Amino acid sequence: GGIEASNGHPARLLGFVNDVSVRKDMELEKEHLYRELEQIITAVDQFAVTATLNLDGNIQATNELFCQFCGREEDELIGRSFSTLLMASQGESPAGDIWQSVCEGKPWQGHVSLCETGGEERIANASLSPHLDDNAEINAFVFIGIDITARAAARRALEVSIEAHRKSNEDLQMFAHIVSHDLQEPLRMVSSFMTLLERRYALELNPEAREFIQFAVEGATRMRSLLDGLLEFSRVQSRSLELKPVDLNASVAGAIANLMVLISERGAEINVTSLPEVQGDAAQLMQLLQNLIANGIKFCRDRSPKMDISAYREDGHWRVRVSDNGIGIEPAHYGKIFQMFQRLHSREEFPGTGVGLAVCKRIMERHGGSIEVESLQGQGSTFTLIF
Question: Which residues contact residue 358 at a Cβ distance below 8 angstroms, ignoring those fewer than 6 apart?
């Protein structure tokens, strides 16, 4: 009534069936592992620079990316010593102590520089590992690398840019020193002597001569104002930032205190709601808000200046709004007002140098933020600081 082994013991037959089942499972698992290994090898072959070296360090096999990396055909590379491809200036390479270490069975990782046939340097972030046979003996070496030539070039370009920026800052600081001392003094002297000339010889000068002197004094004064504005702008860029938590309520309070005479003279009303704390340089942020408040008061005509300063959170950023009831700005001029020495009105209408908003923009850029403006002609403007 049942299946029996030839010796009459069913249990032995079941044991045999189990052994076959286990071996079959092992074969399936091995096949699965081989497929995974093939997928890994395929992926590496598509994205990595690979080569196999013999025990003498000669190239036995390469993939297409390795040929492209070296700028050579495969038949030019097979049998060639890998070390001859290395740049002469390469300090860290699979040669010398490193090659000896790999021969002892210790994998190596680092950067290698190879020279293309055209002389271009190619750089790879690579590893060189020993390959072991079934007896755990080294029978080859496997080179795998990722081409980082473009990344290295970008990094060098960035370093050059940083150095140029540092040099530019030094030049700017030197220029600021010249502006604040060497150029200001001659202008003061011109203005002083022209004024003295007018006072001492007032009775001897005709009206036309006095007018000419007045033009000269006004020109020197205007030039001094422009230099002061340029100096203010250069200091924003050259001064090192001291980033720390800054309470903007305190910044606004300081700005209002500095402008108290102007605010009192114009009868300005400034309403401030609760402002946030941001990371920044306290001195520059107070200067920024002071420029915006002074700007709002100056460009208000035929009415008492009124300003509202508030803040809200949006998309992970603080937005601080400084609104006024001034003359407004046409949309076509939104970009122009943030440029150095750009004025929309004559000096007779509104005094100034056209530097204030350029300074505001530069301060926000140095803080990793931006400044925007919205305005209606004749109905005021709103400047938004985005932190």
Answer: 233, 338, 339, 340, 341, 342
Entry pTM? 0.48
Distance of CA 316 to the CA centre of its chain: 19
Q: β-pairing, 317-324 with 306-314?
A: antiparallel
**195, 217 in Cβ contact below 8 A?**
yes
Name the residue among 184, 213, 221, 182 with its Cα closest to residue 196.
213
Enumerate residues 6+ apart whose C-beta is below 8 A from 305: 266, 267, 268, 269, 296, 297, 324, 325, 326
> Helices (DSSP H) in 259-373: which residue ranges?
260-266, 282-298, 356-366
pLDDT digit string, tens, across residues 41-78: 555 566 788 888 888 888 888 888 888 888 888 888 89
DSSP secondary-structure letter at 45? Answer: H
Is the per-residue pLDDT at 309 higher than 70? Answer: yes
Strand order of the sheet with strand 59-62? 59-62, 49-53, 138-147, 121-132, 108-115
Which helix or strand (DSSP H or E) is residue 306 part of? strand 306-314
pLDDT tens for each residue of 239-286: 667 789 999 999 999 999 999 988 999 999 999 999 999 999 888 899
152 phi and psi, to 5 degrees?
-65, -40
Nearest CA among 241, 319, 321 for reference residue 280: 241
Chain length of the chain? 387
